[in-house]
Specification:
seven-stranded parallel beta sheet; globular; 319 residues; alpha/beta
């Protein structure tokens, strides 16, 4: 326990190795990791947490790298959590090298971490919010969450961020898909990246048309920022828009409401995952359950009835 306390003290003091170790513990669902989160709780809720979502190839990593450079010039410390697809062999982050962020690896004011989805739907790893909370507790002024590009399914980034940025590129079929209402209701800021493309203005008009159909947020009009991340064009404006949205949610009392929603969803998500693991563990060797599954495979029993009987065996009321 003394070792855990030492780790917590080091993390709260901004030690990058302690932060890396803490995130690993949480990602592995190690009890020591949750003890660390518990110890860090009083130091949480200071960082501005921004989620970046969008289709593959939109340039999210390059944009974040440029934004990190801008924020560091303002002497703000930054944490970056990149949610990557899982390796099919070991379950680790498949894109863990984060080449586009490599210029910041040796900066003591920047912490970069890749986290595998491990099959989590929506593009966010189960422990993503906990990792963001640890970055916050370690003293980061800004925490950026980058999701895998899985299109509309990654809408759960909204459950992890104070501000959500949707990054699109002109001339892409994936970007057109992202214009559907299910995704367009998410962002607080929209970025059209790679603006050298001749269809940039057309896409901006399309986005404005879709936004005009969405229910407005009183006091906030979703801005569209045009960027060329590789040349860092438009990055300063993006930083200003993010700061403006942060000020807006604070002044309107929406920040606390968002964070309450985020934490409630995280509690439900973690509880769901743990219940499933416990259920799988208890039923894996149960002969009665295996017989039920055999009945389903033989088409003598439908899946819904089998699920109801499994829950009944576990004493769960599922009427």
């Amino acid at each position: 326990m003394a070792q855990d306390g030492s780790l917590a003290d080091r993390l709260l003091g901004g030690d990058k190795r302690a932060l890396a170790r803490g995130i690993s513990l949480v990602e592995d669902d190690d009890p020591a990791g949750w003890e660390l989160v518990r110890a860090a709780c009083p130091r949480i809720d200071r960082a501005a947490v921004v989620g970046f979502t969008g289709p593959p190839g939109a340039g999210k990593s390059t944009l974040i790298a440029a934004l990190v450079r801008h924020q560091r010039a303002l002497d703000r410390t930054v944490g970056v959590l990149s949610i990557d697809p899982s390796s099919p062999f070991r379950g680790g982050a498949l894109l863990g090298d984060r080449i586009r962020l490599s210029e910041h690896f040796l900066d003591p004011g920047v912490f970069i971490r890749s986290m595998a989805t491990r099959g989590a739907l929506g593009g966010m790893a189960e422990a993503a919010l906990q990792a963001a909370l640890l970055m916050d507790a370690a003293g980061k002024d800004d925490v950026y969450l980058e999701t895998v590009g899985v299109g509309q399914a990654e809408v759960d980034v909204i459950d992890h961020a104070d501000t959500v940025v949707l990054v699109l590129i002109p001339g892409s079929g994936d970007s057109i898909q992202a214009l559907k209402a299910g995704v367009m209701e998410i962002p607080d800021v929209i970025v059209v990246n790679k603006i050298d493309h001749p269809l940039t203005d057309t896409m901006v008009r399309e986005i404005r048309g879709v936004l005009s159909l969405a229910p407005p947020v009183p006091g906030w009009r979703v801005p569209i920022v045009k960027t060329e991340a590789t040349r860092r064009e438009g990055v300063e404006e993006l930083a200003e828009r993010l700061a403006a949205h942060r000020a807006f949610v604070v002044e309107e009392g929406l920040l606390e409401e968002r964070r309450r929603r985020n934490l409630l969803n995280e509690v439900l998500g973690l509880a769901t995952v743990r219940l499933r693991r416990a259920l799988e563990a208890s039923l894996r060797e149960d002969p009665g359950v295996q017989e039920l599954l055999d009945e389903v495979v033989a088409r003598r029993l439908d899946p819904a009835t089998a699920a109801r009987r499994v829950l009944e065996r576990e004493g769960v009321d599922n009427a």
